[in-house]
Amino acid sequence: ATLTTHPDITHAAVTVHHDHHTGDRLVGYVVPRDGARLDPARVRALVADRLPDYMVPSPITVLDRLPLTASGKVDRRALPAPVFPVPQYRAPVTVAEGVVAGVFADVLGRERVGLDDDFFTLGGNSLLATQVVSRLGAAMDARVPMRVLFEASSVQALSTWLESRAAAGAHTPLVPRTRPEHIPLSYAQQRIWFLNRFDPHSPVYNIPFAVRLSGTMDTAALLAAIADVVDRHETLRTIYPESKAGPHQVVVPAAEVSGGFATAAVTENELATRLLSMASSEFDVTTSVPVRAALFETAENEHVLAVVLHHICADGSSIAPLARDLMAAYTTRTHGNPPAWSAPTVQYADYTLWQRELLGSDDDPNSLLARQLTYWRTTLDGLPEQLELPGYRTRPVTSHRGRTHAFTIDAPTHRAAAELARQHTATVFMVLHTAFAVFLARMSGTTDIIIGTPVAGRGDPALDDLVGMFVNTLVLRTPVDGASSFTQLLTTVRETDLAAFEHADVPFERVVQALNPARSTTRHPLFQVMLVFQNQEHPKLELAGLTARIEDIDHTATQFDLTLTVTERVDRDGAARGLTAALTYAQDLFDENTVRGFADRFTRLLEAVVADPNSPVGDIDLLDPTEKQLILEDWNHTDHATTTDTLVSMFGAQVARTP
User: Fold this and answer.
1) Domain count, the chain
2) Could you identify which of 11, 12, 260, 581 might form a hypothetical disulfide with 31, taking C-beta atoms 3.0 to 4.6 angstroms apart as the criterion?
3) Is pLDDT of 140 > 80?
């Protein structure tokens, strides 16, 4: 409608064009009045004066007429493909340009990246950016701050920055280390180890998954393949006994582990119970390896493979390399051969030794650990002990019982969020973080909002295909002023997130230790609400002669009061198709209706802020029409029948009824 307000345009159409590089974008088509000459740039400028940027079509194509269907409507399928200005490919020339282009291509899965290509335009986000800066630091012997990638995101701009700072203090290289008699745990493992000793019966750190396999199964080959994978990854066969010096790693020979994998014939009715029992069973990480596997036969040519990993040995990003290795080993085992793979470049024990060397000692003020801890002490000083949300029950000693409410955010909102991020040199994660902070502030009536978020911690390429516990947790603090616009808060959040990512080497456990908050068995330290933006590889398990699909396990345990998990949905061309979201909540604190209301209000808030990001966030209406009717009308009815009764007569009547 805005296009047709131009005096020289008689007809117009706007549609969404899918591009596998840039995602979805609005494009426009216009028909001029007879004899008029249209300048698409001026037409676009007219529209841009009246609409927010993400609603302005680009490019605008001038047509003699719009194609119509038999019913007289615009035939959008018959519209010609828009012509975008395509920059000429310029190949990298210098060493630095070649390294940057190669890292971009590797992380983003691109065959070719040129000098003018931009990391974020090609599909990069803040989580993938952590891998880029780490790999560039290792390749160029220079420490690359996250902020630099956001401000110099093309190959040419970033390589120019790198060339000016060559040999400026890169990370210590990750290579195999000489192992001491007692191999220490990683910092993340230490906290999990202490929690396991504190409550060895808790399944909260179990990672269960199950796959239904239909078809002709070579059981012996599958069990041998599982043993091959356990042999390949030392962390799957490591125990963590205690000594006078503290817990340490002991790698168990593969032969002592493989005999523990079970097979059993069960009915379909028994399967769910067996899977839940397996997922909920405790691990004593001091005496037993942190992996459990079983193959259940439910019928002829129907099997379910169940695996439970303890978090001390793996994280969510470990599932993909685990699945790839299992597929490779099963394929070769069905032909009677062991897998002919090369050994991993490093093992998890090498990583733990490297991590301590990298961080140094907090007694050394120049160490990476000391410098980053100084940032976290300053940033998180005076942190509120906990966030109180409506619907909270009295906090008991936490049982970690969780439940999940799933919901979706539509494609137009997803596209608008991506466009808003692009306009502000931010990412979709940063937009979601800002929206979630505003939501929590509105729900809690507070302005100091603390949210945790995980980062993969796999910046070094040597860790790509390794099973292990590498994930770290960042604490993101956001002041939310209801008078601020969403774009103002997004600018603040962008700075907060970039600074946090730049100080992500120090483990969360050391941050907790440094801040020493008041401890409680009823809440998680430093933050109680988590935001997870999923971009890790979705594992695919394809075994020869078998059809595989994920089997649900009714097992939800949670460490936090509330966790918002968001996954981007894109089609095969990379076009935005909406967001899949889930709120996982502690059943001790919330009921299902409360959390369903949270999901509805968050969705409503996100739709509002991307539609009008310049309005004060305190003015956003979070209530739906039914809730408004209930609060403003139904609860405020003052009509009532009059009575001549007095307090004395009512008291007498009650005495008569119940003497």
Assistant:
1) 4
2) 11
3) no
